[in-house]
Give the backbone structure.
Amino acid sequence: MNNIRIIVCLGLSIVTHLCIFFIVPAVLNRPSAGGGGQPPAGGPMKLEVAKVPPVKQEKAKPQRLTSNDEKLKENKNFPKQEQPAPSASKKKDFKESTDTSNQKATTDKGRFVTAEVAEKPKEKKTQTIEEAVEEVSKKKNEVIKSKLSSDSYRRYLTSLNIGKVKGKATPQLMLAFHDVAQLMEVHKYYGMKVILLNPSSPRTVVELTGLGTQNVDFQKITNFNWKNYSNRIFPRTEPFFRNLKNEAVKKGLLRGKSLRLVSITPNSPDSYFRYKQINVSKQNGHHPDQVSTVIGRFVRTDAGYWILKVEKIRLKTGETKSVQDFEYQKIRK
């Protein structure tokens, strides 16, 4: 009997130990209804953040209208996909974005740069000297109404103190004439002469008189008085004058390979020309040292006198610019 009791006690003891080691821990570690595990007795549960590699974003590839199956050929009769028409608000937004694409963008330094999509401005073509002179010469002969009578105009010229430009360097002057008739009238008004000379020996010249008539005379002068004339000469290369030059050479009045037919100007009118060159350049914002050539034409007034109207200047940078003439503005009604 005692043996039976001992065996029963041992069995109960074994069952009790099994419950303690297996059944009780399973019940204690069972998840709660909230989904979280019970923290250990040592304090709050520590979370370990896993390192996840970055996901590479691939650009979406355009969808093909045909199958990728190599056995199938592209269906050329497949209708093109049309984008739905944008709403009124989207149309406005698109227009605004298009308009602003031609505006200037600002960099992080605050400096303005042209956006890549902006249209490049067309470069303005600069006129050559020949083109500028041709343009000016095509302007019609005009007789302007003057606010000054002949006497008033002479007093105006005196007030300009034209003689002060004597000895000052001036740009090249190119005079444009509408036709030979106008050229002859201007020569007569300013006392200009047309002569044939050899630059190596300018004391001996051939003066052409009677220009504009059928009786042109060639007079040889062996000791020409240059004291009364400017040393600035204007070559006469017009067809009318080329014929006169050939005729003068045939007469054998002058000999040499460098003969030139030129116009010369008395000192007083030449000072007037120089004064206009210098002051028109200055009043249009350019120092005469910046100007290489001044292009002008002659305009007659209803009072009977002529003026030199400066039309354009050629800068040493190569730019040809139209200018305002202070004298023309002064006398014109």
Q: What stands out?
A: Confidence is low (pLDDT under 50) at residues 23-118. Residues 104 and 110 are 11 Å apart (CA to CA). DSSP finds eight helices and twelve strands in the chain.
